[in-house]
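Reader question, answered in our methods column.
A reader sent in the components of a multi-part assembly and asked whether the whole thing could be modeled at once rather than chain by chain. We filled in our standard form and ran it. Here is what they sent:
COMPLEX SIZE: two components
ENTRIES:
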Amino acid sequence: GAGVSQSPSNKVTEKGKDVELRCDPISGHTALYWYRQRLGQGLEFLIYFQGNSAPDKSGLPSDRFSAERTGESVSTLTIQRTQQEDSAVYLCASSSPLAGGRDEQFFGPGTRLTVL
Amino acid sequence: GQQVMQIPQYQHVQEGEDFTTYCNSSTTLSNIQWYKQRPGGHPVFLIQLVKSGEVKKQKRLTFQFGEAKKNSSLHITATQTTDVGTYFCALNDYKLSFGAGTTVTVRA
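And here is the structure of the entire assembly that came back:
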């Protein structure tokens, strides 16, 4: 069956440019998460969407980061005026609504962002 | 927020040997999840522990949640080359708070 998909798989950009990363969650999963993983490190929570509730943006590192979600489907993470420290793998995950969000999360393959 | 610490950061294992990785918190955890991330891959869910003293097994993997719910461990017996990767513990409070992971390499 279809898992979480992300695009692009790799993105190389110049410092100061804006980038947009896309995530398609598993169909029927109302919860969607974005995480960032720097090289050799663990995952950092960025933002969480659950149905029509207001998103939890508490993990966004600066106002250059924003995310949107269309209904209970596609989400986009936008990074404005990229900096070299934004270089990382950005992972999207989704989970089933059955356990109120306290359930296993299914991760996409990630987008590797390199800021030159 | 709550944080989980993992030790060791790196584990180099001879094929066939056993090893254990630990996850510790200074505060009581409501639950703990374990994920495995293969080199170049994405995290894949292994298990969730919720109850004090809980022990769950998956073939050669044994997961344990401490009695005080402040620590957890993953024990792998008879390590194989397929066990290579980074093992993360994470507190699941709808968003995951990950430990730094234990990266496992296996000598054949």
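What stands out: The CA atoms of residues 18 and 80 of chain A lie 4 Å apart. Chain A has a mean pLDDT of 92.
Send us your own complexes using the same form.
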